[in-house]
Amino acid sequence: MADQPSKIEKPEGSDAGGDIPKAQGQNPGQGGGGGGGEDDGAKSGDGKPARKKPNPLKNPKVLVIGAIVMVVLIVGAIFYWLWARQYVDTDDAFVDTHIVRLAPQVSGQVMRVTVDDNAIVQAGQVLVEIDSSTARASLDQAEAQRGQAIAQIAQAEAQVGVSQAAYRQARDQAAGYAATAVASNQDAARLAGLQATTPRAVAAQQVDDTRGQAKQATAQRDAALRQAEGAAAQVRAARTQIEGAKAVLAAANAAIAENQLTVGRTQVIAPLAGYVSQKSVATGGYVQPGQQLMAVVPFQMWVTANFKETQLKNMRVGQAVDMSVDACPVKLHGKVDSIQRGAGQAFALLPPENATGNYVKVVQRVPVKITFDDVPRICPLGPGLSVQPRVKVR
């Protein structure tokens, strides 16, 4: 059978009753019988019994080292938790500012551009000059109209003086003629009475002459009164001319102010200090009112960090903030300036309608404004850059 040991021929000169020697290199446990395999497995290659390996979990040193490691890990985790609970952070934060986009208020050809891309500008600095020849011509015309209106006012005022003098003269003449008429009428009445009582005392010719003088004086008085009325009308007309000339002067002044504004608007001026960005204007181009020429990024910037609403429990205005900006090689520091009253979804163009029955609670984000304490020159901050703020809330 296959499990019985094969017969090995004895070499010559060997004992017939001796044991058969084992083949060299035979592994322990390889025997002819089942019982012989167990005995051979308990022995080493040289025939000696094998030693059992000790269990490391029963070694006191290993147990002590493991216990120390576990204690260190637990204590480290506790200290890390105590440290980490003092801060809240987010990676949903960006540098923000009020970007000022500049556009002309008048149309025309660009004569000069005084700044380059990414240049630093100061408030009141002229950035772009537009052709102002048409506006200046209109301004000159308005100034000429103002001069003409001033001359008209002076002429009308002089006419008022002349008319007033003529009126006074005509009024005095009327008064003189009226007095002569009264005296002549009285003389004529006396002579007529005397003639009636004593016909020979007064000649009829004398009475007629006195009456004629009285009528002439009355007529002269009436003519002087009419002349005085005409002079008074001329005074009123001259005053009306003054009012009209003043209206023309006011219109000319308004035109001058408007054209001065137009001339001033041919220069695009920086409203605040900052950096030039997105410059799209060049010398020689034609621009229209409202066309964006460039943008100015102010020096004053802040961080808008969108924290989870669950992170705002202990956040307060004035708390210190450490910030990491990818574009800045150093850490930046700041403080919490303000917290927006309302989540971002409340200000969306189409706010969610939660009364439809399919509501699922989602942790909302709330914008928090963080201001910088000091920004070194080596940090090229700009709106839109990513920031990772960490607020110390405890």
Task: Give a structural overview.
With 394 residues, this protein is of the alpha+beta class. The protein has four helices and 15 strands. The chain has helices at residues 34-41, 60-84, 133-197, 204-265, and strands at residues 87-89, 93-96, 100-102, 108-113, 120-121, 126-130, 267-269, 274-277, 286-287, 294-298, 302-308, 320-325, 332-339, 365-372, 386-392. It is rod-shaped and about 205 Å long. 15% of the residues are buried. Mean pLDDT is 81; it is low at 1-41.
Backbone shape: rod-shaped
The helical percent reads: 40-55%
CA radius of gyration: 59 Å
Helix count equals 4
Give the biggest beta sheet.
6 strands, antiparallel, barrel
Order of helices and strands: HHEEEEEEHHEEEEEEEEE
Number of domains: 3
Class from secondary-structure proportions: alpha+beta
- Fraction in beta strands: 15-25%
- At CATH level 2, the architecture of the largest domain is Orthogonal Bundle
Low-pLDDT windows of residues: 1-41
CATH class of the largest domain, named: Mainly Alpha
- Measured between the Cα atoms of the first and last residue, the distance is 86 Å
Q: Give the strand order, joined by hyphens, for the main sheet.
A: 2-11-14-13-12-15
Classify the fold: give the CATH topology of the largest domain.
Answer: Helix Hairpins
**Quantity of strands, as a count:** 15
The whole-number mean of residue pLDDT values reads 81
